[in-house]
Design goal:
Belongs to the metallo-dependent hydrolases superfamily. TatD-type hydrolase family. It holds the Pfam family TatD_DNase. GO terms for molecular function: hydrolase activity, acting on ester bonds; metal ion binding. A divalent metal cation 1 binds at residues 91, 203. The chain has helices spanning 17-25, 39-51, 73-81, 103-120, 132-142, 158-166, 184-189, 226-237, 241-256, 264-272, and strands spanning 2-6, 31-34, 55-59, 86-95, 124-129, 149-151, 170-173, 198-200. The chain contains ten helices and eight strands. The protein has one domain (2-272): TIM Barrel, CATH 3.20.20.140. It has an eight-stranded parallel beta sheet with strand order 1-2-3-4-5-6-7-8. The chain is globular, with a radius of gyration of 17 Å. Helix content is 41%, strand content 15%. α2 runs parallel beside α3 and α4 (103-120) packs parallel to α5. By secondary structure, it is an alpha/beta fold.
């Protein structure tokens, strides 16, 4: 399986990156998309992908961090994106729920990253919360020049889903779908996601699935918990969990490309030849 959204550079995983990935592998989760959310975390995501098999990365600035970019942030992202392990621009978008960065700055930084993705012909990993209309209006300026769009950690309702599907977006489903308190709208939308556009992700260390039994003592989500998301999504779609795993893995490979050529082990062998 592929975890299409893992924040491995988060402080919660400090000094235990290898053990977190090994534990996930024991649950059949062997490929990972390491999300970049700032200049620094994007650099860390790539560094981690270079050292751990099965990992690729994204490079981008989250709307929460938009006000903190350096004057040369686009050059930083462009340099990172030149590495074959970086497969998408983002996580980028708009978040009016908390407005940690002023909306005008969010829009400017989002627009600049879309222009970069269009220039580099890379997919975009999207973030959006309480900003759907503005997000879609900006996306529509660039989407014909961007090879693919990925609505990372989608938590919206059926109406929002239809807007993203109209734009041929891949839809990432996290442990939000396992939340009996907040996840009702997403649960109702799950059957409407086209099979070819469905992706699964944990967004770890955030969004711990509430269906885990017994409930873990720690609130830290882990990529090894992806099977709980698989189980819930399979039930909601009336499909077999194994079939869902196969389909979503194929979808991830179509969006991000193959992982196999970037194995750390293969790189090390080549260096000694």
């Amino acid at each position: 399986m592929v975890d299409c959204g893992l924040n491995l550079s988060a402080p919660a995983f400090a000094d235990r990156h290898a053990s977190v990935l090994d534990e996930a592998a024991r649950q059949q989760v062997t490929r990972f998309v390491l999300i970049g959310t700032s200049e620094h975390s994007s650099q860390e995501a790539l560094a981690l992908a270079e050292h751990h098999p099965g990992c690729i990365a994204t490079a981008g600035v989250h709307p929460h961090d938009a006000a903190n970019v350096s004057p040369g942030y686009l050059d930083v992202l462009r340099t990172l994106a030149a590495d074959p392990r970086v497969r998408a621009v983002g996580e980028c978008g708009l978040d009016y729920n908390r407005n940690y960065s002023p909306p005008a700055i969010q829009r400017r930084v989002f627009t600049a990253q879309l222009a970069l993705a269009a220039d580099l012909k890379l997919p975009v990993c999207l973030h959006e919360r309480d900003a759907l209309d503005d997000q879609l209006a900006i996306l529509d300026e660039f989407r014909r020049d961007i090879p693919a769009l990925f609505a990372h950690c989608f938590t919206g309702d059926r109406a929002a889903l239809e807007q993203y599907i109209e734009r041929d977006c891949y839809i990432g489903v996290t442990g939000w779908v396992c939340d009996e308190r907040r996840g009702a709208d997403l649960q109702a939308a799950i059957p409407a996601i086209p099979e070819s556009r469905l992706l699964l992700e944990t967004d770890a260390p955030y969004l711990l699935p509430r269906t885990i039994r017994p409930r873990p003592k720690s609130r830290t989500n882990l990529p090894s918990y992806l099977p709980y998301i698989v189980e819930t999504v399979a039930q909601l779609r009336g499909t077999d969990a194994q079939a869902l795993m196969h389909t979503t893995t194929e979808n991830a490979q179509r969006l991000f490309g193959e992982w196999s050529a970037l194995s750390v082990g293969q790189d090390e062998e080549a260096a000694h030849e």
